[in-house]
Amino acid sequence: MSGAYPVTFAWTDEAIARLKKLVEEKLSASDIAARLSKEFAPISRNAVIGMIRRKAKAGFPQLKAPARTGAIRAPGAAGKPAKVVRPSTKAQDAHHEGRSARYAIKAPPRLTSANDPKGFDPDLKALADLAPAKKPVETLALAVQRAVTNAKAYDAASRHLTLTELQTGDCKFPVTDDAGGAHRFCGGQALPGKGPGGFGSYCAHHQARCGGGPSTFRQAQDSGRAAGKPAPRATARSFGEWAAA
DNA sequence: CCCTGATTCGC
DNA sequence: GCGAATCAGG
Question: What is the reported pTM?
Answer without folding.
Answer: 0.39
